[in-house]
Amino acid sequence: MRPHRDRPESPCAFCGIARGRVPASVVAAEPLALAFLDLRQYHPGHVLVIPRQHLPDVRALDDATAAAVMLLVARVARAVDAAFPNDGLSVWHSAGPGAHQEVPHLHVHVHPRRLGDGLLRIYPAAPAHPERATLEAWATRLRDLLGASGTPAI
Questions:
Q1: Tens of pLDDT along 82-113?
Q2: Measured between alpha carbons, how far is 154 from 56 in angstroms, rounded to an integer?
Q3: Is 47 helix (H, G, I), strand (E, B) or coil?
Q4: Whole-angstrom Cα distance, residue 48 to residue 90?
Q5: What is the pTM of this model?
């Protein structure tokens, strides 16, 4: 996927935040990544971590930006855990419409959780448990795409 450039016909709110043009409660600013409080706070301390460059989702990340985003996610997770009451944290990124991504700029949620809060139910029903041979076939398909170096050959 190619990075989007800000265009008047399709402004990106997160690009505006990254450039300082849209107000946000920034909690950490790094050269390649930025963290700020989400406007929606189901539990206090819900933070979003974004790359400064407009990238639609995790599939468009280069290695350096991926490392910077995940490093900031880990730092923010420790801070949220220390600063806000929680029984755990959820860290997630939704990629694309099938995953209900709401803003088409990669963002990772760091969200304090409370037991029984009902947020982010993962499976709507019991998931399948494929046979080992099926899992191995899928693993082979992925290994082939990743190549020996672990870098996708796609």
A1: 999 999 999 999 999 998 899 999 999 999 99
A2: 18
A3: strand
A4: 12
A5: 0.84
